[in-house]
Amino acid sequence: MKITLDQVSKSFGKTPALDQVSCHVHPGQTVAVIGLNGAGKTTLLRLLGGVLVPSGGRLHFDGRPFDRRDLAFRRRLFFLPEELPTLGEYSPLRHAAMVLPLWGLDVEAEKENLMDLYERFDLLPCLNSPIYSLSRGQIYKAILAPLLLIAPELWLIDEPFAAGMDPEGMMLFREKARAAAAKGSTVIFTTQILEIAEDFADLIYVLHEGRLVEILKVEELSHHLGQQKVSGEVVRLLGRLRSGGETK
To answer: What is the pTM of this model?
Structure first.
């Protein structure tokens, strides 16, 4: 799925959250969106997921204007926010039975694949427990498992590596996301953990005060820096932004 943002802005009242953001994201790319607190990272993902409507500019998917009312189109993506959407009294199994049909999947047909994910996420002992009784990391894995079966063309994930998942859970998420990108899906995630952005993403989008100030190609930057870390370069960039300096 090709995504095009053309001068996209979003304001809440008189407060701008995104300011004329323009970029292209191509199928198969993995993009890490980083920035200081309040930079507009979550707002960007909410716009792409149809949770919010732009205040200005144009947003296109595969050359078509994004219509959030088009449910068939929205089945081509999923958005997993940092604040998890769930009915706490539901068990992981009941939650999956609610979610999968929304994307046109048959629960019984996917049961073996779903149980395999639960096993790898170490969730089998709590499949029938109410979600509210689980730890934050377990809740995240319970919500994530059925979404991994959907295999959408666009993944939108807000702070997945700050969700409290254990190392095995994070490894499985990365494995599935990499496999999806290799098949042409687009993966966009926010993070404050620069080492993960460096290791996991093809591109790093740097937002500052609602503006897209840099697009860093990780492979090219790594080659240019040699033994230095890309994350170190990003820290220096964020430091200049914090102090009001230029990005270059």
So the answer is: 0.89
